[in-house]
Amino acid sequence: MVNRLNLKKTFELYEEALSLIPGAILGIRRPYNFVEGEYPIFFETAKGGKVIDVDGNEYIDMLCAYGPIIIGHQEEEIDRAVIEQIKNKGFCMSLTQPIQNRLAKVLRNLIPCCEKMVLMKMGTDATTAAIRVARAYTKKEKIFSCGYHGWYDAFSEVHGIEAGIPKKLFEDFYEFEFNHLEEIEQLFKNHKDKVAAIIVNPIHTPGGREVEIPKLGFLEGIRELATDNNALLIYDEIRTGFRVDMGGAQKMYGVIPDLAAFGKAMGNGYPISTLVGKAEYMDVLVEKVFLSSTFFPNSLAQIASLKTIEILQRDNVLKNISEKGNYFAKRVKESIQDFNIPCIYSGQPWMPYITFTADPNFLYRKLREEFYRQLIRRKVFLQPFHHGYICYRHTYEDLDYAADMIAESFAEIKKML
Fold first, then answer.
1. Domain assignments of the chain as residue spans, ordered by start
2. Measuring CA to CA, which of 20, 172, 175, 257 is 20 to 30 A from 204?
3. pTM over 0.90
4. Which CATH architecture has domain 76-314?
5. Structure confidence by residue, pLDDT tens digits, 314-328
6. What does the pLDDT read at residue 233?
7. CA distance linking residue 247 with residue 242, whole number of Å
8. In the CATH scheme, what is the code of domain 8-73+317-414?
């Protein structure tokens, strides 16, 4: 039996934060998204593939800040490039610095659909801009959407006036299930000549459910449907970009969208995103579509992104992550089989996720909670309702430790079956 962690300081900070910030912490980082009373709420430091909480507990970090950490925490080469920019040139000015053009040319050379791009800060910036561009170009309103695309009104996970989002702000959005091409076909029949775009994650990453790879013909099918109906195809590559391939999932699968949103891994933790696409569509941003922010031209994240991409290419990082991810997946799948646990491992090799199979008696919820309770006590930081990530600085020793602790946690919950 492994004892509960000492989390005295984290809970003190949480109580203080409750009086300062609504809910103490924003959104997905709140305690109810983990196992309440068992997970830390505040981290103090991070280095490589590990994090240390405010009580001094060190964990193998397999959440990687929800995806931005592709290489590792505190990457000296990236941070040094940013510090040099601060010391020698500055970074927040009334006009744009030339680094914009350098990064833009790199993106154009890597991403198949990228002829022009705009640089922004958050994933929601990029997906929101994509919808605006698609509507302006097609002069149509309706959007078919699958998956999470940020906190923009129509994409929000909660809707309704009680959530601050009146129906009129999302009534032109229609959801479909991933890998269900027939649903999209029917939507086009119902809304013919009114559809501006389809937006989809090329690899599906729903909350609380296993990561889903596109079935043969699915991406090709939505590409064809979009073209045939004069709608734009938008890929949300915020998670897949610079992780599954340097050109994103579109490069890996060979099915090219009209527009694509990238973010997270492209800056190794620095806040940057981009909307890229064919020049014909992107050029509505010249005069027709308004897009502006004081901080979009800020050069620090652009410097970080350029250096991150350089390291990813130079050190063949994505191949390294893929090899480690497959190694880790093999070990975890063997444990699932050995202990005969009713769960699924998905996301191989990039986004590891252990989800428990639903049953009529809701035992899976108890198994899930106990599994993640046991795992965090063994200092492996994964999340019950969100897939994890593998970064370059995770060593095979780290992954072996994590796999061993997963096996120990399976042994504990086996007693409940």
1. 8-73+317-414, 76-314
2. 172
3. yes
4. 3-Layer(aba) Sandwich (3.40)
5. 999 999 999 999 999
6. 98
7. 7
8. 3.90.1150.10
